[in-house]
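User: Here's a protein and a ligand (cobalt (II) ion). What would the complex look like?
Assistant: Let me lay out the input and then the predicted complex.
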Amino acid sequence: MIVVKTIPQIELMRRAGDLVGRTLDLVEKTAKPGLTTAELDRIAEDFIRANGAEPAFKGYLGYPATLCVSIDDEVVHGIPGRRVLREGQIASIDVGVKLDGWYADAARTLTIGPISAEARKLLAATMEALQHGIQQAKPGNRIGDISAAVQTFAEGKGYSVVRDLVGHGIGQKMHEEPQVPNFGTPHTGAELKPGMVIAIEPMINVGGPAIKFDADKWTVRTVDGSLSAHFEHTVAVTADGPDILTVATRKG
Ligand code: MF3
Ligand code: CO
């Protein structure tokens, strides 16, 4: 069942989304060569709790951390630990919070020092693929319009789209219906209505779309070892069009 939110409920989700945006801004500012991924995770968790919220991922299906930190050929769900960030890496940071009962979820791929031209182009294309998807999140369109917009843009740049993991509805649960694939056919799938809130999250690979899981059962990486990027926003469908909730609207 797809849950439609009221305008006051969307405002509560915007507060959660603001905190997600501010957490990602803090992590982006902090992530430097020499720092461990566990140190980043601690900074994010402390910030989220200091703002009266809970990390949404910690404890979810046994996931042990606040952030997912996925480096280079890792696609998503990299577990923070003793690993040290190195110049030239790309690091996908995914974070969710629960604030006053409402969830928000977003991700961005950060650069650690100077990176290769190949990596820079991948990040720009994945960011732009997400924006193309978001533009389709308006009443009267269908989920397939979002999916197709992401896929067409990413594949048009010569990249491939991960198919085994998808975006999702979000609200009083982190994962709600509908699923939001990053590939598909225009004019198909659930119709978008004002009050629907979805997390759109393209995972884009330089090489092929295939992924595999590490022995830790969480870390997802490309089978061919190619670079992968991930950008995600929580977006409300409104009468006026898409409304991105996971951006910082307050300072600090
Ligand atoms: N952002 C991820 C998603 O959209 C959630 C990470 S899964 C977790 O599904 F288990 F790490 F929480
Ligand atoms: Co998500």
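Summary: Residues 105, 168, 199, 201, 232 surround cobalt (II) ion (ligand 2) (CB under 6 Å).
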